[in-house]
Amino acid sequence: VQLVESGGGLVQPGGSLRLSCVASRTIFSFETDYLMAWYRQAPGKQRELVADISGIGGGTNYGDSVKGRFTISRDNAKNTAYLQMNRLEPEDTAIYYCNAKVATREYWGQGTQVTVSS
Fold first, then answer.
1. How far apart are CA 54 and CA 35, in angstroms?
2. Residue 44 backbone zone (phi > 0: left; psi -120 to 50: alpha; other: beta)
3. What's the mean pLDDT when you consider all of the chain?
4. 20-35 confidence digits (pLDDT tens)
5. Contacts by 85-91 with C-beta closer than 8 Å and gap 24+?
6. Structure confidence by residue, pLDDT tens digits, 44-84
């Protein structure tokens, strides 16, 4: 399974970005079997969960620091997960990683840099 992220960049505080993660070379059904998630890692800090979304039912879970500002979604027909980030803050600056869990396996994307600065 290959995960490719896009959409990162430099944005001013209060701005928005949308990250995308396309899964390819998938095994099993993306729609039913893949739990998709976004993690982030800031310099000098541990990697932390930003949000995740299940396959069937599309249930979501968010880290406390992003609740009400970020929205995770998925388009199963395109094997893609998204992270809409609004009201960005300098503290959101990090490398954002796409993550997929399927059966007993876990996969990571290469990461995309998000920088929030004026």
1. 5
2. left
3. 95
4. 999 988 888 888 889 9
5. 85/16, 85/17, 85/18, 85/19, 85/114, 86/16, 87/14, 87/16, 88/11, 88/13, 88/14, 88/15, 88/16, 88/17, 88/114, 88/116, 89/13, 89/116, 90/13, 90/116, 90/117, 91/42, 91/65, 91/116
6. 999 999 999 998 778 999 999 999 999 999 999 999 999 99
State the CB neighbour count (10 A cutoff) for residue 19.
Answer: 24
Residue in 47, 26, 17 with CA at minimum distance from that of residue 111: 47
